[in-house]
Write a structure and sequence with these properties.
By secondary structure, the protein is an all-alpha fold. The protein contains 24 helices and no strands. The protein is globular and about 75 Å long.
Length: 517
């Protein structure tokens, strides 16, 4: 192959810039709102108390809408073209952001967040489709490294940006910040993305939509309710969760009947695609589930502010950004089966260090160092997995494959967060000291005396009470990290099945005739 063919030319970078901007908006908005939930509770209360579970729907509603619309993306891209659909998704997301900033009640905010999620859900799979069509599979690793930037920046910058905007301005700016980004992305996309020449070849799978989209939304709603209820054996978890599972199972049986199903499960006949999805499911559940707890640890155990907690998580992103471009280049030259295992070793070593550093006396820089090591591992893991999943698909299958991969990742992340959060919650609830401290704090806030059991335990432990509380909390976080660690170790089994030899047929660059006209 001519070395010049392996390089990403200016045209590809221009397209990549559009995709990264759109993806940053969608992913950033998932995390930036988290720090604003207490503010929503007071600012939109109108004199009446709003339950935290109600306010949390501003996050849950967005996530469910995002997950429900992802399966439609493959068909819609074929029907309307990637450029038109991408611009429509950006416009819908931007309009939803503007409406969120004008919300007059918590119910209105939740409704507008759902509208945001419908637009945001299409941006990531569309971006992957646009970029892979633009450059071909022989440069997939470099492309995935670029697309990994918003995936890293979202969890890192979200809490920092959200906390800063609320401190210096108001909660409205958490959403208003998306307006200039949305306008810039629309103008950029109109100028940079090649014109679509649409030749619709796929009929719409109405039955599949009626089964998969509500099934996925109901299942994720049930899973998302687990941390709130503290148990799976709750009607709020079981009823929507089981209905969702039944609808999804129904879709699995149905999907092999139509020629063009909503989600093409026939792609799992591709061994490399299947192995990559299994790895992505286990990895995303364990890694993102554990990473979500790190800012909470800094706030609850170490007493850091929301802004500081966000800043202290930054080393993980910095480590990933250092390795990700290198991993992208290597993924185009070396089989991913020789790259991903080293990335997983970094993640596992970092997770071991994190699990052994939860003591309240552990120096902060130790924890940041382990997060940096985890980031190095992630940089060598996540994008090569995406690369392996899509590389052996035909250009026509890429849209379907990226959609399916995003659905798998969304389910895995939600399930991982729920499971690891329940482990943490149950471990905290089993501590008498933590229970007494919580009861005493609530009584103090209400101007009451602490309950008898709390007062008795506090008197019994005396000066050791506070240290016991923090030690028990640290132990709960350690247990949660260990659960994530076990899942990551199990993931090494499917990692061993990734290709360790050069894939045939990928040396010759494919011309992106379906997109570039």
């Amino acid at each position: 192959m001519n070395p010049a063919d392996e390089k990403l030319d200016r045209a590809v970078f221009v397209v990549a810039g559009v995709v990264v901007l759109g993806s940053i908006m969608s992913i950033l908005d998932i995390t930036v709102v988290n720090v604003a939930l207490p503010t929503f509770q007071t600012a939109l209360s109108d004199g009446a108390d709003i339950a935290y579970s109600t306010v949390a729907w501003t996050v849950t509603g967005y996530t469910l809408a995002l997950a429900a619309v992802i399966p439609l993306t493959g068909w819609a891209a074929d029907r309307f073209g990637t450029k038109k659909l991408f611009m429509a998704a950006v416009a819908l997301f931007t309009i939803g952001s503007a409406l969120c900033a004008t919300a007059w009640s918590i119910e209105a905010l939740i409704a507008f967040r759902v509208l945001q999620g419908i637009g945001g859900g299409m941006l990531m799979p569309l971006g992957m489709t646009i970029m892979t069509r633009a450059a071909g599979p022989h440069r997939m690793g470099k492309l995935m490294a670029i697309l990994g930037v918003p995936m890293l920046l979202g969890p890192i910058l979200g809490p920092i940006l959200g906390g800063w905007l609320i401190d210096v301005a108001s909660w409205h700016w958490v959403f208003l910040i998306n307006l200039p980004l949305g306008v810039i992305t629309l103008v950029y996309a109109a100028m940079a993305l090649p014109k679509d020449h649409v030749d619709p070849s796929e009929s719409f799978d109405f039955v599949g939509m009626l089964l998969m989209s509500p099934g996925l939304a109901l299942f994720l709603y049930g899973v998302s309710s687990i941390p709130e209820t503290g148990t799976v054996a709750s009607a709020k978890v079981l009823v929507p969760g089981l209905i969702g599972v039944l609808l999804i199972v129904g879709f699995v049986f149905w999907s092999f009947r139509p020629k063009h199903p909503l989600l093409d499960l026939r792609l799992f006949r591709d061994r490399q695609f299947t192995v990559s999805n299994i790895i992505m499911f286990l990895f995303a559940g364990a890694f993102f589930g554990a990473l979500l707890l790190v800012p909470t640890y800094f706030q609850q155990v170490r007493g850091e502010s929301t802004l500081n907690a966000g800043l202290l998580v930054a080393p993980q992103g910095l480590g990933a950004m250092l390795v990700m471009p290198v991993a992208g280049v290597l993924a185009d030259k070396i089989p991913v089966g020789r790259i991903v295992p080293f990335g997983f070793i970094g993640i596992i070593v970092g997770m071991i260090g994190l699990a052994t550093s939860t003591s309240p006396d552990t120096p902060i820089w130790h924890i940041c160092a382990w997060l940096f090591v985890m980031g190095l591992g992630m940089g060598g893991t996540m994008m090569p997995i995406f690369t392996a999943a899509l590389r052996t698909l035909t250009q026509h299958e890429v849209a379907r494959g990226s959609t399916l991969l995003n659905v798998i990742q969304q389910i895995a992340s939600s399930a991982g967060v729920a499971v690891i959060s329940v482990v943490l919650t149950n471990k905290l609830n089993s501590s008498d000291a933590v229970g007494a401290a919580t009861a005493a704090q609530e009584a103090q806030a209400n101007g009451e005396q602490p309950p008898a059991f709390a007062a008795e335990l506090m008197a019994k432990l005396g000066d050791r009470f506070q240290s016991t509380v923090f030690a028990d909390m640290a132990d709960a976080f350690q247990t949660s990290y260990v659960v994530a660690l076990v899942i990551l170790v199990v993931t090494l089994v499917p990692v061993a099945f990734l290709p360790r030899k050069r894939e045939e047929g990928l040396d010759a660059p494919q011309q992106p005739t379906t997109l570039m006209h």
